[in-house]
Target: Adenosine deaminase
Amino acid sequence: MTHLPKIELHLHLEGAAPPAFIRGLAKEKHVDISGIFDERGDYSYTDFWDFLRVYEAATSVLQTPEDYARLTAAVLAESAANDVIYCETFLSPDFCGGRDLGAWREYLHAIREAADRAEAQDGITLRGIVTPIRHFGPDKAREVALCAAETAGDWIVGFGIGGDEKAGKPKDFAWSFDMAREAGLRLTAHAGEWGGPESVRDALRDLRVERIGHGVRAIEDLALVDELAEAGVVLEVCPGSNIALGLYPDWRRHPIGQFHDRGVKVTVSTDDPPFFHTTMRNEYDRLSKAFDWDDGVFRAINATAAGAAFCDEATRARLQ
Ligand code: ADE
Ligand code: ZN
Model:
């Protein structure tokens, strides 16, 4: 099952940057980010909030559309080598041009061109989900939503929110999600990673999202789990991320098995693979060992992911 074709719905483009790639750019641009690596050269952080600091420091060396084009090429080559055939990536105008619409269009153009080359070479398809950063606040999120609305279409297909789930409440971002929905974008939100079940309920009610990024802490309220199953809400589960960040002690105690058994639609993604020493193959391999899942389970998970992908029907038809 490790080599099955895979669909990944939850990947942060900057978070997928290998440390050597970031070091190379830092050297070219004479930026000192030595403090974010350990002695082996891996990203080094102590907890989720320190991870966000390291993530933003690494991202600070990505300064031009060309940097993002190079990043996209590197990330998609690695994803294709892990049998990923379709991927949705979070992109943020906060990092790509500072929420300036003209600059954002240039970044997007460069990223799309790199993605098109990867598709021609390796047969991997990429689509973008525009993402404000929650701890940057609702005002910046509005500017991000405007960028998203202006570029919504066949390639920018979704709108989401990442960052510190403890910062503010989902309803603070309702205006931005309403604007994105009206522009035709499909919606997801990080919730139930660092916030409990209430955080998932709030995101569903106040942002009206159809997918939840992570959502794993819904497991602390079984009535909510049943509601998720009933409503067909799709969870973008990133087990290796949750374990690396200390949410669960090991793979066997990760709740993805319980969600699956209770009929919740689960999908599997890596989130920020080099930060968590994971890959899509590694996720499948660890899950198959922890839960004794066979090919059939992973095929069903990919069918769920294909059904929940935000791309148009013609693209989806190629995935099923
Ligand atoms: N941004 C990158 N990775 C993230 C995560 N796991 N949770 C929230 N925001 C993120
Ligand atoms: Zn994420």
In short: The chain has two domains: 6-17+66-317, 19-61.
